[in-house]
């Protein structure tokens, strides 16, 4: 037993030295846990920010002026007042994302009890901003028209008194979500890539034959790759969470980082075993890349890191319960966003350990079989 542990340790150190000289993988690791996190958090915002808007005011009334003044930063830029003929050139040139056309006699029709139309032109090439902005504009128009019809707020009777309180992210800042989810996605992606590439690299360079003539078992070879590459991912994950997310992006972490790292280490046994399993099926790096895309895309899209699991069809929800990445995303979000402790997330920890352990054994048997073929 002592000799086996020593072999696993020394083989793992060899893996770390091999990775040190693989410049491409080193660049991928650094980029994935630094610039990739930053760009995901700041490059694509889910918030409406400084949207370009123009107003065609054909009414010239007090209501139209109040509507124009209601579009305020940081959601909208100061509205530009343009003529009706300038709508198409302005939107074709990308100067405006939204153009609100207030028709003549708009205020008079409102006060007379009519229902006049108001036109909102939206540049839907900026799809996300267009969808969010349309909701903001509808809310602003409804509010200003309501104040005109009934200036006294006390006279406006609603059937319900709705008070909305956002938990864990009071300002609904998108970077608080995307940065952490990008780390979780990259943990899965890099752990599969590193372990799979390590095995294929041994095969392509012919060093796997050197290992086979040594007094080493398949389990020792596999475990060495698992702990070495898993350690690299865990260190990179800690660096990214503490320095990039918390220090640079100033995203508050509600729960225990150490509990999250423990859960990540547990999940890495499954993810690294998956990388080795895919490497036993592939004969070259291009084949491994194709298998990787077939596996990683469904895992990331359906595990709940990009879209809520509850929004998926019931059949997919049931199937994804057998995938450890689903439970990893669940307890990672619970710990980092909601400050959950081990007393809350232990069922997910147990599921990841159980399912991941079974797959680890399956991958080890498959690896042993592939090693036996090479020896023969």
Q: What do you see in this structure?
A:
The chain is mainly alpha-helical and 376 residues long. It folds into 2 domains: 2-44 and 173-375, no CATH class; 53-155, 3-Layer(aba) Sandwich (abc type-2 transporter like fold). The chain is built from 15 helices and 4 strands. α1 (2-20) crosses α10 (218-248), α2 packs antiparallel against α8 and α14 (324-338) packs antiparallel against α15 (342-375). It is elongated and about 90 Å long.
Throw out a few tags for this protein.
15 helices, 376 residues, elongated, four-stranded mixed sheet, abc type-2 transporter like fold, mainly alpha, 4% strand, 2 domains
Could you give a quick summary of the protein structure above?
The protein is mostly helical and 376 residues long. The protein has helices spanning 2-20, 23-32, 35-42, 62-69, 87-92, 106-111, 127-149, 174-205, 207-212, 218-248, 257-281, 285-302, 314-320, 324-338, 342-375, and strands at residues 53-57, 80-81, 98-102, 119-122.
